[in-house]
Amino acid sequence: MLNVVRADDNLPVVFLADRMTMQAGCHAPPAVTTLTREDCEDDEDFAERTEFGREFRIVPAGVHHVHANLSIGNLGLQEYAAWPTTMPKGSSGPSEQPTPEHRGDH
């Protein structure tokens, strides 16, 4: 699927409705970056931009916030992926503020 959406330069991230999204109580979809190594200057740039992984789960209410900020370049996916969570492991939400004791395992 990522091969199909990578053709669109205006899609820095896709949100998926997978089994976990549909079955978990919070319905948190994964946000998956379309970034590839070829999109980056070098290996170091790619490693920095994917430091916290290539995907994370987000509260449904945060999908628009993430998409809008990525579209205008206000924040990068790596910044969202680095945010702590009170959602299931690997989830994030735009209203949460980073605190060391809530850092997720990414």
UniProtKB/TrEMBL annotation:
UniProt xrefs under Pfam families = DUF6924 (PF21962)
Question: From which domain of life does this come?
Answer: Bacteria
According to the UniProt record, where is the region Disordered? 84-106
In this chain the DUF6924 domain maps to 3-82
* InterPro entries documented for this protein: DUF6924 (IPR053832)
- Residue ranges with Polar residues bias: 88-98
State the name under which the record lists this protein: DUF6924 domain-containing protein
